[in-house]
Amino acid sequence: MPTAPRYCPHCTTELARGVPNGDTHERLHCAGCGYIHYINPKIIAGCIIERDGKYLLCQRAIPPRPGTWTLPAGFMEAGETTEQAALREVWEESGVRADIVSPYSIFSVPQISEVYIIFRAVVTEETGQYGPETLDYRFFEPDQIPWDEIYYPAIRQILERYILERQAGVYGIYMGNDDTGKVHFIR
Ligand SMILES: [Zn+2]
Predict the structure, then answer these.
(1) What's the 54 CA to ligand 1 centre distance in angstroms?
(2) Is the per-residue pLDDT at 187 higher than 60?
(3) Residues of the domain holding 56
């Protein structure tokens, strides 16, 4: 969570906590000029990328849980679409260029105000060059995936589901949240 500001960025009055007129949530707000300090969730966009039955995973170089393997994903920047953010993160973390196929999973983690949006994508180019947030990247056969070293349980669930679906040739769209730890089938 970001640190709460103490003063209004517009008129420097000290901010007060409470429910602003006509609002539904308690927020920091300014009695001087009416400024309201909104805190909204962050969006993390990424991709599940399969090539010839192998799945792209990146090994994290940075906390939390460095050394674990995960789907390439990261925070959206202002001015991006979710698709652009997802493909940029894939590029930065694996050096892989890809094209989006469809949305695949939306997963909310309300305790830390984050939303994960994962797309299906296909590889267009593999450069072998990647940024400092990644120790290594690999396309894994399903039985070679380091299942006990996956970054987050929901990532493991998404991968397991995807592998089954690829065998069946039919793909769903999923949503879930961290309260249950489960990805739910909504098709
Ligand atoms: Zn103000």
Answers:
(1) 54
(2) no
(3) 42-176
